[in-house]
Write a structure and sequence with these properties.
alpha/beta; 2 domains; five-stranded parallel sheet; 11 strands; globular
């Protein structure tokens, strides 16, 4: 059994983390990194952690990871699928890879001994004791540029919000190489109207207006969408004592502290019956990554400087990931 506390503390762990944080020493940032990191901001903002979080599109080769005992993938289902498409087997890899607890079914059999699950949790008791008050203000965080990812879940999520008052922190990012004129503004307007009808006192705020973060209870709507499972915005709030209304502690494993108020649980990769069905659907029914559906995906050329020509996935692949993400 791996002792994750020992693996994340001490001199060797500090040295590895120092190298990891100096990314130019082991991975050159390129146009593809910039395109998708920018699209996901501020959720993709780097943050300090001994678990060494990154997005898999930042990984140029598996060999580059071997100077680290472990890394944590911040990916949602789309980027994780693309990662295993690029690297179907962990050839010569000694690094342990952490993926979000909801995405264990995506992991190929060849990778399963190399992969562990993680779940972020908060310590509500300690938070209440230290702040001597419970979270009071409701905060809804939403990516207006990716409403498709949450259309089937947003109703259920906002049922967790009590009362008519809610502050809305929304982001709208256009991906480099996309034409703004092709964006469907109607979806954004409809969402705002729907939210206004749902909450009589909905107030739009910006980053700069976030104050007293320990008083918030929040819902980060897109954190279970296609692109990311580990948002900087959530860490920003949690490390200040806020409460994540979507948190459901389901893993039983070792805990690694990230701040006085929140931690990550790490557990061996196991799949329940529903996850086994999804794994079989992906690898047997759709024959990922060799099936017809996955043919014709963009060839990754990181030397391309024209953002209109630099794409990591096709529209068809995006739609397929929407379907997978909707499965319970």
């Amino acid at each position: 059994m791996i002792d994750w506390k020992a693996l994340t503390t001490g001199f060797s762990a500090n040295e590895e983390t120092n190298i990891f944080n100096r990314k130019s020493m082991w991975s050159e940032v390129d146009q593809l990194d910039e395109k998708y990191s920018e699209f996901l901001r501020p959720h993709s903002t780097p943050y300090f952690s001994r678990l060494r979080p990154l997005f898999s599109f930042e990984i140029k080769s598996l060999d580059s990871l071997n100077q680290f005992s472990h890394v944590l993938l911040r990916d949602g289902v789309l980027f994780l699928l693309k990662f295993f498409e690029r690297f179907p087997e962990p050839k010569h890899l000694i690094t342990k890879v952490l993926v979000h607890k909801d995405l264990g079914w995506v992991v190929p059999k060849a990778w399963q001994e190399q992969v562990f699950l993680y779940e972020r949790v908060s310590d509500h008791d300690r938070s209440v004791i230290q702040n001597e008050r419970k979270p009071k203000k409701n905060l809804l965080i939403v990516d207006l540029h990716d409403l498709e990812s949450i259309e089937g879940t947003i109703e259920e999520k906002i049922e967790l919000i009590n009362g008519p008052e809610v502050e809305v922190l929304s982001f709208f990012n256009m991906m480099r190489g996309k034409d703004i004129d092709r964006y469907d503004r109607g979806k954004t307007l409809s969402f705002h109207e729907w939210l206004k009808n749902r909450f009589s006192s909905a107030k739009n705020i910006s980053w700069s207006e976030l104050s007293g973060s320990e008083n918030y209870q929040f819902i980060n709507c897109n954190e279970d969408g296609l692109f990311y499972r580990d948002s900087y915005v959530s860490h920003f709030l949690l490390q200040r004592g806020a409460k994540d209304l979507l948190e459901k502690k389901t893993l039983s494993g070792q805990m690694v502290s990230l701040s006085p108020y929140h931690s990550v649980i790490i557990a061996d990769l196991t799949l329940n019956d529903q996850e086994l069905v999804k794994h079989k659907l992906l690898y047997e029914t759709y024959n990922y990554p060799c099936g017809e559906l996955f043919q014709g995906e963009p060839q990754i050329d990181r030397g391309i400087e024209d953002y209109f020509k630099l794409n990591y996935y096709s529209t068809r692949f995006f739609k397929f990931c929407l379907y997978l993400n909707s499965l319970k």
